[in-house]
TrEMBL record:
This is Haloacid dehalogenase superfamily, subfamily IA, variant 3 with third motif having DD or ED. It comes from Blastococcus aggregatus. One of its GO terms (molecular function) is metal ion binding. Belongs to the HAD-like hydrolase superfamily. CbbY/CbbZ/Gph/YieH family. Keywords: Carbohydrate metabolism, Magnesium, Metal-binding. Its cofactor is Mg(2+). It comes from the Bacteria. Pfam families: Hydrolase. The keyword Disulfide bond does not apply.
Amino acid sequence: MNGQEPATPSGTGALRAVLFDMDGTLVETEEYWGEAMFSLAGQLGGRMSAAARAATVGTSMRVAMDVLYTDLGVTRTEAQAQGDVDQILDAVARMMTERLVWRPGAQELLAAVHASGLRTALVTTTPRRLADLVIAHIEAGYRGGGPFHVTVCGDEVPARKPDPAPYLHAMAWLGVSPAESVVIEDSLVGVTSGLAAGAAVLGVAGLQAVPPAPGLVQCGSLEGIGLAELADVLAGRVTAGGPAA
């Protein structure tokens, strides 16, 4: 986990923090994971189904590999599975280095949140060595440091999404309560993690359908989403009687 100095909680209930997922939420990197997994499936003598690919969105590598192997009907030893994971990570790292594309409206929203002085976090299941490639790309557009007060990666927390631990960890570091926080996510496991942490969640349409849930507001993209809309997402969570801490 990388971060600036942690803050002290106020417990006011007003919007104080925005916590962003990375893959498929801020940047168009989900396609890289898909490309790498489809390539591996071909090497294993099969073809990964669209349903299986969708089921891997936002998950850990272990879960994604289990989905892939089940879909293909293959069995791999622990050593072979680790080799498959390494191959996918290397392929995705190469693609991230070559090209990164923002999701619609994401760059503008992040800039607005940063300029407002709200606390910010990047919370991703992606391992640190890959996430840092994206973080460096994002930070290059900011002077005097990046837009995130803390970044939390999947290999730095005791439990990964859909467990609430990653978001609870980030909120504790930021010094904010769930009642003061909006999480922005595109996947079912990410939305589940944010809601389980007690935050209001803005779900962005992506590769995976996310069913309605209390505390969740869904949008087609982040285009047109600003501070006022984020405040409305949080207000809806509070009005609905969501967790205050």
